[in-house]
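Case study 2.
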Amino acid sequence: TPSVLPGNKELEPLKFSQVATSLPRQKVEECVLGTTSLLSHCLAKGENVALVLKDLGFLLIEGTKVQMKFYHEFLARLTGKENLEKVVFKVPGLLDMMVSPTVPVASLTFSGRVIIFPK
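Prediction:
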């Protein structure tokens, strides 16, 4: 059953069978739980963390600062290349949210030190 969070938001458990497309459900569950456990452990120790989301971008967590960086190619696929070029100059801060997949994640951090998931 869903849990209720502050602000009357509902938190539902992840349905691993919906995530598991070509992999066995148990394997997907082990990977997700292992990654979230390790991520939680690193955050509890105050480590800076980047969670790499293949072909999408990465979530960078440094202390209390959390930012999402999207790969340019992902946004171009999502919006269409022509639309992205038009929007990029109209939306403040959008360029700051975009990054090339060839840029080392650690170079974008304040500390220059980050644990990258998955390895």
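The longest helix spans residues 25-44.
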